[in-house]
Write a structure and sequence with these properties.
204 residues, alpha+beta, single chain, four-stranded antiparallel beta sheet
Length: 204
């Protein structure tokens, strides 16, 4: 009956096993190391288990970790996050720039610091049209040249005044109680109609 001898590396004592399968089983169960020595039937030299011709391939296959299959359903979110951040910065800059464009031009202060420069309406009445905004109870009322105008008609009525009179400067007379959204609508309409200058008189 053929037998296999296995011993720890360099040890004088060996264990007899019936087959190479038992040697491999001992490696898998942790009884032997790949560097321990083995002799097959009819052999008179000791070899390490991982170099024996009948055992080397099996040992190498067992020692090689299984290859992990790539999860094809995995979605890399990093590029998507980068794009979202770029869009967020773009929208912030766009909104900031649009807000600056809506800035109201006000007359500069006098050198003597006694207050804003006074403009006589009689001197500029042929160059400007007047837009007023007041609160009537809880309802904002907008008038262009004393004519009440619905909020959604401000731009249209402003265009009619500009086309009929040629006046492209505006005096904006607004109470502080008027919501800022109404003021913004007036300023947007002026910008859309090419108003060159806005003289602001915000009361309150």
């Amino acid at each position: 009956m053929s037998s296999w001898l296995v011993r720890p590396e360099g040890s004088p004592q060996a264990i007899r096993l019936a087959s190479p399968e038992e040697v491999l089983a001992g490696i898998r169960e942790g009884h032997w190391l790949p560097s321990d020595e083995v002799q097959g039937p009819g052999e008179n030299q000791w070899r390490s288990i991982d170099t024996h011709p009948q055992l080397a391939d099996s040992v190498a296959e067992w020692l090689t970790p299984p290859r992990l299959q790539e999860d094809e359903t995995h979605l890399d979110m990093n590029p998507l996050i980068d794009v979202c951040l770029v869009l967020l910065i773009f929208f912030i800059l766009t909104i900031t720039y649009a807000s600056l464009e809506r800035a109201i031009d006000v007359p500069p202060l006098n050198p003597d610091k006694k207050g804003p420069a006074q403009v006589n309406y009689k001197d500029i009445k042929d160059q400007v049209f007047v837009v007023t905004a007041r609160m009537d109870g809880n309802r904002p009322v907008v008038r262009i040249e004393k004519q009440e105008v619905p909020i959604h008609q401000i731009a249209k009525e402003m265009k009619r005044i500009i086309d009929s009179t040629g006046r492209r400067e505006m005096v904006l007379d607004v109470d502080k109680a008027v919501p800022w959204g109404i003021v913004t609508a007036i300023l947007d309409a002026a910008k859309g109609n090419g108003v060159r200058n806005i003289l602001n008189n915000r009361r309150g």
